[in-house]
Amino acid sequence: MGVEMVKFFSLFRCFLSMNIKKILEYRMDFIIGIIPSIISSLFGLIFISLIFENIQSLTGLSYYNCQMIYGFFLLSSSLERILCGNFQQLRGYIFNGTLDLIFTRPINLLLHLMFLNFNEEYFIQFIIGIGVVIHSVTSSGLQLSILTLCLIAYVSILGALLLISITIITSSLYFISDGTFSLFNAVNNLTTYLKYPITIFGKTIRFFLTWVLPLSAVSFLPMQLASEGFNNHLLYIIYLTIIIVALLMLSVKIFFYGAKKYQSTGN
Questions:
Q1: Burial of 182 (0-12, 13-18, 19+ CB in 10 A)
Q2: Buried b or exposed e, range 197-236, using 16+ CB within 10 angstroms
Q3: Predicted pLDDT at 250
Q4: Cα angle: 72, vertex 74, 79; to 5 degrees
Q5: Separation between Cα atoms, residue 94 and residue 104, nearest integer Å
Q6: What pLDDT score was predicted for residue 31?
Q7: Does 133 or 192 have the greater pLDDT score?
Q8: Of 30, 106, 143, 222, which sits 20 to 30 A from 176 (CA to CA)?
Q9: Closest among 136, 96, 104 to 223, alpha carbons compared
Q10: Is the pLDDT higher at 31 or at 135?
Q11: Could you give the residue ranges of the DSSP H alpha helices within 177-202?
Q12: Sorting pLDDT into bands at 50, 70 and 90, what band is 3?
């Protein structure tokens, strides 16, 4: 396990260095690339502000609670996109032959796809997410202990791992279907609703997002930990850890099973 982690961080460092050099070489492309990410994040905050111009609270949550949820969503989703943004291009890699080239390289296929190209705009989104969380917490007057902060960070990482697992599983269907079928876009559309409190949904959807596919870990639970403390959520955090780690392990197995079934589209 220790050797695998060393390989993981070694590959990450090498590919990150390559992408930084590419950014420095094409600085204007980098600037143009991050502008839509900044605008998208700002529009999300503006939308929350417009809602609270007409109401005092949303399902018992204040403006800063909802802003906090949005900030945590930016954190977890940007981490997922930094590591798994290339999976959106997997269909293109299959049809243009890039995937065939990747298969010939003596590097773990999953890690290679993760690190092949970093989407720099999501690093900016991650920084914006940190800023939104800090602003909403300080504006709410919350006093967070070191333990609470550590648990919030831990749950946010769990949320990112959950999104990564879902991305890997849904993208793996491209291998089996020769690039013609995936649930990636459908699941990606579902996760956009995590910008908002899960309490606005009906009981059935809340149960699903809490216990079956616990996407509440992405944004809603970190907000609860910041606002309410961790005493009432420790057992649920243990449950989340077991479910998400199991799902991550399953996603890796599904990925490599699909990779074995892959047949090149080339001649």
A1: buried
A2: bbeeeeeeebebbbeeebbbbbbbbbbbbbbeebeebeeb
A3: 95
A4: 100
A5: 14
A6: 74
A7: 133
A8: 106
A9: 136
A10: 135
A11: 184-191
A12: low
Are 226 and 153 in contact by the 8 Å Cβ rule? The answer is no
Higher local confidence (pLDDT), 154 or 117: 154
Q: How far apart are the first and last CA of the chain?
A: 39
Q: What is the DSSP letter of 97?
A: S
Record the tokens describing residue 259, joined without a space. 């990779």
pTM across the whole model = 0.88
% of the chain at pLDDT higher than 70? 89
pLDDT band for position 46 (50/70/90)? Answer: confident
| Contact between 63 and 52 (Cβ < 8 Å) | yes
The residues facing 214 across adjacent strands are none
Q: Which of 3-17, 93-107, 138-152 has the lowest mean pLDDT?
A: 3-17
Can you tell me which residue has the tokens 């609470």? Answer: 148
Spatial separation of the C-alpha atoms in residues 168 and 184, rounded to whole Å: 9
- 17 to 11, 22, 117, 172: CA distances (angstroms): 10, 9, 11, 27
Angle, helices 234-261/220-228, rounded to nearest 10 degrees = 160
| Short-list 146, 193, 188, CA closest to 170 | 188
pLDDT at 85: 82
φ/ψ bin of 60: left (φ > 0), alpha (ψ from -120 to 50), beta (otherwise)? left
Distance of CA 260 to the CA centre of its chain: 26
